[in-house]
Amino acid sequence: MEFTSHTPGTFSWPELATTDQKGAVAFYRRLFDWGLNDQPMGPTETYSMFQMRGKEVGAAYTMRPEERQSGAPPHWNSYVTVKSVDDAVKKAQGLGAKVLAPAFDVMDAGRMAILQDPTGAVFQVWEPKQHIGAKIMNEAGALCWTELTTSNTKAAEAFYTQLFGWTPKHSAAGAPMEYTEFSVAGTPSIGMMPKPAQMPAQVPSFWMPYFQVTSVDTSASKAKELGGKVMVGPNEIPGTGRFAVLTDPQGAAFAVYQPARA
Fold first, then answer.
1. Are the C-beta atoms of 122 and 206 separated by less than 8 Å?
2. Has residue 162 got a pLDDT over 80?
3. How many helices (H) and strands (E) does the chain have?
4. Which backbone phi and psi does 153 adopt, to 5 degrees?
5. What digits encode the pLDDT tens for the residues 73-89?
6. Domains in the chain, please, with CATH?
7. What's the pLDDT score for residue 34?
8. What span, in angstroms and rounded, lies between the C-alpha atoms of 62 and 55?
9. Residue 118 predicted with pLDDT over 90
10. pLDDT of 93
11. Residues 121, 152: Cα–Cα separation, whole Å
12. Which of 13, 46, 111, 207 has its Cα between 20 and 30 A from that of 80?
C-alpha cells in the first residue's frame, strides 16, 4: 500500500544503525530487492534511503562513535509519527520516559527526538515536514509490523497507550504465549511480548521491525546465503501467517512475515 501521510501513533519509518553501511546496504538490497538513493549527510557521510518503485521504505546509516561507545550493537530504529515532537517528549517524560536526544530539526525533512520507555526500549518520535516516513507499507518488501520485546508488559502497555492512544488486545487466556496487539485508529500494526526466559538478562527491552515477504522460508535461506543468521523459525502463527527472526551480517535483528493466504 502506498501512503502520503501516516496517522499519529503509527510506526512509520524503519532505520538501520550499522557498523558497516556498505555491507549492510548490499545485504538488504539483495534480500528485499530494494532500490537505493544515497543522500549526503555532512562532508563524509551518506544516508542510504531504501526504495521500492522509486518510493522510500526505510534507510541505513553508520552508527556514530557515541552510539558505539554506549555499547549499542547494530540495530533497527523504529520511528513513530506524532503531531508535535515537543508535546510528545513532554508527555513521555511525564509518563516516566528518558529523553536520549531532545527534539531537534532534521533540515526540512521533519523534527525528531529519541526516547527510552520506562522498561528500557528505545524509539524515535517523528513530526513530518518534507519527509512523511515510509511511502509504502504492508506489502512484500515493506514494513508491516513493529514489535516490542519487554521486561515489563504491564508498564509498557500503560506507557504507550497513554502516550499514543493505542488500543490493546490481549491473547486469550490459556494461549501458548502471552501476546498483545495494539491498534492505531482501528488497525492492528504493533505487537508486544514478554522477554523470553532464555534471553540473557542484560539484553534490554527492544523494538523490532517486521518486513513482509512472499515466502518466509525463501527469505530466511537467502538471508543465510548472504551472511545473515536465522534466530527464530521459520514458524507458523496459526491462522495468521509465517514468520522468522533474522540478523544481518553485522548483527542487527529484524523479522520477516508472510501473511496466510486469505
1. yes
2. yes
3. 5, 16
4. -65, -35
5. 899 999 999 999 999 99
6. 11-128 (3.10.180.10), 143-259 (3.10.180.10)
7. 97
8. 22
9. yes
10. 97
11. 11
12. 46
Residue 261 clears pLDDT 90, i.e. is over it: no
* 3-state class (DSSP) for residue 5: coil
Residue 120, SS3 per DSSP: coil
How far is the CA of 212 from the CAs of 31, 160, 241, in angstroms?
Answer: 12, 24, 10
SS3 content of the chain, % helix, strand, coil (to 5): 20, 45, 35
Count of all residues that appear for the chain in the document: 262
The residue type at 187: T
Q: Is the pLDDT of residue 19 over 80?
A: yes
Cα separation, 160 vs 88, whole angstroms: 11
Is the sign of the CA dihedral 120, 126, 131, 132 positive or negative?
Answer: positive
Distance separating alpha carbons of residues 235 and 217, to the nearest angstrom: 9
Residue 234: cis peptide before it, omega within 30 degrees of 0: yes
